[in-house]
Design goal:
Layout lengths: L28 H18 L12 E4 L5 E3 L4 H6 L4 E3 L7 E5 L34 E5 L9 H7 L4 E6 L1 H14 L6 E2 L12 E4 L4 E7 L4 E4 L11 E8 L1 H4 L7 E5 L8 E5 L2 E6 L11 H23 L6 E5 L32 H24 L2 E5 L2 H5 L32 H13 L6 H9 L1
Parallel strand pairs: 1-3, 6-9, 6-12, 11-13, 12-15, 15-16
Antiparallel strand pairs: 1-2, 4-5, 7-8, 8-9, 10-11, 13-14
Helix pairs in contact: 6-7, 7-10
């Protein structure tokens, strides 16, 4: 189990100044002697290890652009050339998976009853447990383990919403299981709806509420004629937030947005009530629109609505929005509909798998919209942070349920290489969430990453 690095502090010894006295007249000898006698006492006081509380540690940090950023200690320290400690700001989202044979899980399917059968890999016979022995290790620093007691205390009296597709629900179930060691979650969903896609949980000891809002396209959707089918064409209104979440989201302190997987199906797009085009719709005289551009437009609408509303009406100083980046699937020898599976039993090495193709396109769209939303959030008095899980999860083809899950009858025999086993690598999402919430960092390196991807 990893532990946080200790905080480094610089030399706290106070600066010392040399004093000289110029005796110009014999009549000043006595006062000068008195003054010289007082100097050692003054030096003893100012060089004492006990410092005022607002005295800053000497350190040199790197800002998000990689340039040095001095902590000002005053001209006296600079003149004395006091050595400083270099503290590099670490991007916890860049790193590798390290095997820890003695690693323990935070929970099991026996200690957490909130695990859905679709992600309960232990219950449904996954033969290997080695996938639970890997820990995410950022380059150049440590990711602290998830501390359930501290997280629950930070979130006491607050509410957390997960907006998007079923991976958001997967994420919430992981968080519920992690928190169940300090508080027993109560399913209060029926107070709000009978729809399984909209769940609410309450942790009574901490007055903490968690909720999921099913909106796989984020924006308002119109079903195909005859109802929604696997390949039926849906209509998305790219400039209208989905009412399933937009009507209630102002009541939540933290909102975690995640979506993307559903944009692979045939879709028709509208904006301002007018037909914009479609993706893979097969209709004549309809402009083909990139699904990535459509996704980016839907994400822009969503983030503007959430950060804007939270800035005006939300509690907790405007609330905080988290954008969790795209979670890659790992199908091999086919996809979900034609026999594909994910049989691997260990992670990829950091140099074995490259972010490319549609995974890259979705990721770039998200980072671009995050940077724009971050600028808008500052003006609205709210906050948005990037939960950049894409790189870490790209390397975990071994973490999916594959065929060790209990699908509804319509999906029997299909492998799940999209969602994540519980417990499993997805618990790292909440280690990262805990880190970002506690440090109030998330997105500091986004601009640099985007520039690197474009170069």
């Amino acid at each position: 189990m990893k532990v946080p690095l200790s905080e480094h502090h610089g030399d706290r010894n106070a600066p010392q100044h040399n004093a000289g006295v110029n005796f110009r007249r014999a009549t000043m000898i006595v006062p000068a002697v008195i003054l010289l006698a007082a100097i050692p006492l003054w030096l003893l006081v100012v060089s004492s290890p006990v410092q005022p509380q607002d005295y800053p540690p000497a350190r040199l940090m790197e800002d998000e652009n990689g340039s040095p950023e001095d902590t000002v200690l005053g001209a006296a320290v600079a003149a004395a050339a006091v050595p400083v400690v270099r503290e590099k700001k670490c991007d916890v989202f860049v790193g590798k998976w390290v095997y820890r044979p003695d690693a323990l899980t935070y929970y099991t399917n026996e200690t957490c009853y909130a695990i859905s059968d679709q992600q309960n890999c232990m219950k449904f016979g996954r033969p290997d447990m080695e996938f639970l022995k890997w820990r995410w290790e950022p380059d150049g620093c440590e990711l602290p383990p998830f501390n359930a007691a501290e997280f629950a205390e930070m979130a006491r009296g607050k509410s957390i919403a997960f907006v998007g597709d079923s991976l958001g629900r997967n994420h919430m179930q992981s968080l519920l299981c992690l928190l169940s060691s300090v508080d027993q979650p109560e399913d209060i969903s029926l107070r709000y709806t009978t729809d399984y896609n909209f769940k609410r949980w309450y942790l009574p000891k901490h007055n903490l509420t968690l909720g999921t809002f099913w909106a796989p396209f984020l924006v308002r959707t119109t079903d195909a004629r005859g109802g929604q089918t696997l390949n039926g064409i849906l209509t998305l209104h790219l400039d209208e937030p989905h009412p399933s979440w937009s009507a209630e989201i102002s009541a939540f302190d933290y909102v975690i947005v995640s979506a993307g997987q559903w944009f692979f199906r045939p879709l028709i797009y509208y904006r301002n009530g007018r037909l914009l085009g479609c993706s893979a719709c097969g209709q004549d005289n309809v402009t083909e629109v990139s699904r990535f551009q459509a996704y980016q437009a839907a994400l822009r609408t969503t983030l503007r609505a959430i950060t804007g509303r939270k800035g005006r009406e939300g509690s907790g100083g405007g609330g905080t929005t988290f954008l969790r980046t795209f979670s890659p699937a790992h199908f091999e020898h086919g996809d979900w509909t034609d026999g594909g599976s994910c049989p691997r039993t260990r992670p990829f090495g950091s140099d074995e798998k490259k972010l490319e193709g549609y995974d890259l396109e979705f990721y770039v769209a998200q980072v671009e919209e995050f940077l724009e939303a971050e600028r808008q959030a500052r003006a609205d008095g709210s906050k948005i942070r990037l939960l950049d899980t894409t790189r870490a999860m790209l390397l975990r083809p071994d973490g999916h349920p594959n065929r060790q899950c209990n699908w509804p009858k319509s999906n029997v025999g299909r492998a799940d290489c999209v969602h994540w086993c519980l417990p499993g690598p997805i618990d790292t999402w909440n280690e990262l969430l805990f880190y970002v919430m506690k440090s109030d960092r998330g997105g500091k390196f986004a601009q640099r990453k985007l520039q690197n991807l474009r170069s």
